[in-house]
Amino acid sequence: MAGAPITFPRGRELILGVSAGIAAYKSCELLRRLQDHGFLVTVIPTESSLNFVGKATWEALSGRPVSTSVWENIDSVSHVSLGDKADFLLIAPATADVIARLAQGRADDLLSTTVLATTAPILIVPAMHPKMWLNQATQENVRILRARGVTVMEPDVGRLTGKDSGIGRFPETKTIIDHVSQISGRQAFLSGKKILVTAGGTREAIDPVRFIGNHSSGRQGLAVAYEALKAGAEVTVIAGATDPFTLEGAHIIEVESAQQMKQAVEAEFVHTDALIMAAAVADARPHKVSNEKIKKNDFLEIALEKNEDILASISSIKGKHQILVGFAAETADNATSLAEGKMQAKGADFLYVNNVSGGAVFGSEKTSGTLLGLDIAPREFNDVDKFVVAGEILKEVGQRLERIHG
Ligand code: CTP
After folding, report:
1. CATH T-level assignment (fold) for domain 194-405
2. Does residue 258 have its Cβ closer than 6 Å to ligand 1?
3. C-alpha 327 – ligand 1 centre gap (Å)
4. Residue 169: how many CA atoms within 13 Å on its side-chain side?
5. pLDDT by residue (tens digit) across 7-18?
6. What is the CATH number of domain 13-184?
7. What is the separation of C-alpha 103 from the centre of its chain, rounded to a whole number of angstroms?
8. Domains of the chain by residue range
9. Among the four 7, 156, 173, 355, which has the fewest Cβ within 10 Å?
């Protein structure tokens, strides 16, 4: 039976303000790439920008409702709630008009009121004709905004919509994302990295109605996936049987058996910077899966065969630039030295060993254990939230990736 639904504290929320420049269409691609970087995006277009890209497009791409005015959803006081919730506010493209309105502190639509109501970092990406960009009024407004701590990017130089060319082009998506990553700073220490996480337990079929399974809820693996998303990584979760969850922003691959999990891990691993094997993989499966339901009088013995160890087999193909993290559960007094042996035998760079001597870790929100690593001193955790351990594991992974990639 499935346990309580798994809830996550909250992902990195980004508001994408869109004003009425033709470059609005390029922000559709920008939105997608921001999602790949783990941001949960809410779009706030200005009313006139809807002439270029309509509400339906933004709603479909973001998967969230879109409004332009403070006079919609009045009960939720949208501008304040959106401003509070935002970890980042990006306005792209920003027209001369929106820049002027923000410089004046105007509050005449949902975007401008949200800008006033937020304390999140703000990045403005202007796009307009060179004459408008270089006009003293615009330059003065940009200076005012920069003096207030808002980052205003320089537009690119090149061909514009008409025959003209010059300064005023909307910068490349990658350049904008680099600015977002830089400003969101240390929080996004896995930006541009691909993290693969396995979570939950595998189920090994006996016959069409029965299986061998375990009590894993998937909480620890999903906490790692969530923290990786928050740290800006592109995250894929290979999920066995877990408690119910929705994890916005992650790519989820569902599997049942250890063999399916192994295939999925092998297919994904080549594109991955770090694999975190938090799944409780069954060590064995029935030697033969019966096509028919086995009758109770015959259901006395199940012959088993060993499942291959996914972590150990992946470590034999891993590149120098890739990192492996394993988990273990021990009850013995010498848990740490047993786990160190396991880490080495399986070729993992890090291993978190759950101390399960005092009771269940399975299904619980808390964990006690030790994080081991090839080049770190063992770190103890005592009855902490699984999100805490997930965050610490990822910090170590991030530092190691930085050392490897320089
Ligand atoms: N693992 C795996 N493939 C398996 C079994 C386990 O990749 N077929 C991974 C798990 O995802 C986890 C680690 O190996 O990262 C756990 O190893 P395991 O040897 O099963 O450790 P324990 O759970 O501590 O079990 P035991 O002490 O019984 O060996």
Report:
1. Rossmann fold (3.40.50)
2. yes
3. 7
4. 15
5. 887 678 899 999
6. 3.40.50.1950
7. 33
8. 13-184, 194-405
9. 7
